[in-house]
Amino acid sequence: MGGIAPLFRKSRGRRLMEALPKFRLHRPDTLDEALATIKAEPDARFVGGGTDLIVNMRRGLVETPALIDLNNVAEMQNIAHDGDTLIIGSAVTLDVLAGDKTVVRDFPAIAQAAAEVAGPTHRNVATVGGNLCLDTRCIFYNQSGWWRESNDFCLKYRGEICHVAPKSKRCFAVFSGDLAPALLIHEATISVAGPGGERQLPLAELYSGDGADYLALHPGEIVTSVAVPKPNLQSAYRKARVRGSIDFPLAGVAVGLRMADGKIADLRAALTACDTKPFSVGGLDTFLGKSVDESIAQDFGEIVQQQARPMRTTMSTPWYRRRVVARLARRLLLELGAS
Ligand SMILES: Cc1cc2nc3c(=O)[nH]c(=O)nc-3n(C[C@H](O)[C@H](O)[C@H](O)COP(=O)(O)OP(=O)(O)OC[C@H]3O[C@@H](n4cnc5c(N)ncnc54)[C@H](O)[C@@H]3O)c2cc1C
Ligand code: SF4
């Protein structure tokens, strides 16, 4: 291979997106129908808003004979309460989630994260399930077919080498969904249904940590809903991105804080776009019983920075992304502590 083709070289008449290939479209109305459809078409892909999947199909990154549209599945449509638990159907759109009064009041980090995804037209159709399951990203992967081919593809799809870490046998493509960290600090669990029946698991267990095979779902499993216990803490979400109005996070952080008698009684943080999966920051018990001030916020930012592990998967450097996520975390803690 004669080096990597420049990322923004003119396409010289080649299309950056190909026409959408032909596929069969199924529109089940119930979960049972959706499961029967995937049993009959095991190579089909589920689709919510299609704002991630359709782009990847047009780039030749996903080949599938059929799509199963989950938007009409009755069991996945609503935001409901079960005692003190909020249940969010995975076909709920991000626009609806961001505007839901209970979510805005009790789970501000979740509402803020939903409102920060892409642009308004995406959020009108993009779903909770699609946001949690969206593909991992990398500058060597989210490219047109001709660009990837001219660089011998890469380990994640059709190639043999990782251009980010050429000696590695694993993919480091980054998970860049905004909702996951906000749900993680709220200890969300997800329900999934598939050929083997239904099961519940902590959201963190949805992700495998492998940038290529990034979900830990069994074949044919659908994420049907997310359950979040009523919180006993304040929360907020913030992200850094290149284009303020419409962009994936270069790094994003959700912070949850509960104060008692002026001291920290609970402190949580979770990151996105800093690794192959979203994850909760560890080691925060050390702050319990302390006041929120500049010095504590600085220490908190340092712990966040140490645990963020972005690789060279975006145009921004890992160094910048680690610094910026630490700064965002520090600010959020000070803001929550002052409110
Ligand atoms: C210009 C642009 C900017 C973007 N900016 C952001 C951003 O800032 N933040 C961000 O988080 N995302 C961003 N995205 C990606 C995408 O728009 C969102 O992540 C969106 O929430 C994906 O939801 P969807 O319903 O459209 O997913 P889809 O495209 O329908 O699906 C995504 C993946 O999830 C799978 N899937 C969908 N629903 C389920 C389910 N219920 N169970 C199991 N698997 C399922 C699909 O098979 C597919 O693999 C951006 C996209 C574009 C094009
Ligand atoms: S990190 Fe993954 S997507 Fe990026 S070049 Fe390496 S194998 Fe490809």
List its traits.
four-stranded antiparallel sheet; globular; binds iron/sulfur cluster; binds flavin-adenine dinucleotide; alpha+beta
Q: In brief, what are we looking at here?
A:
The chain is of the alpha+beta class and 339 residues long. It has helices at 31-40, 53-58, 94-99, 101-106, 108-115, 120-125, 128-133, 145-150, 179-185, 294-307, 318-338; strands at residues 24-26, 45-47, 66-69, 79-82, 85-89, 189-194, 197-202, 222-229, 234-240, 251-260, 263-272, 279-280.
Polypeptide structure, described:
- The protein has 339 residues and is of the alpha+beta class.
- The protein has a single domain (24-137, 173-338), classed as Enolase-like, domain 1, CATH 3.30.390.
- 28% of the residues lie in helices and 20% in strands.
- The chain has eleven helices and twelve strands.
- The protein has helices at residues 31-40, 53-58, 94-99, 101-106, 108-115, 120-125, 128-133, 145-150, 179-185, 294-307, 318-338; strands at residues 24-26, 45-47, 66-69, 79-82, 85-89, 189-194, 197-202, 222-229, 234-240, 251-260, 263-272, 279-280.
- The protein has a five-stranded antiparallel beta sheet. Strands 9-10-11-12 form a four-stranded antiparallel beta sheet, sandwiched between helices.
- A hairpin with a 2-residue loop joins strand 4 and strand 5 (85-89).
- Helix 10 packs antiparallel against helix 11.
- The longest helix has 21 residues, at 318-338.
- The mean pLDDT is 94.
- The site of flavin-adenine dinucleotide has 32 residues, from strand 2, helix 2, helix 7 and strand 8.
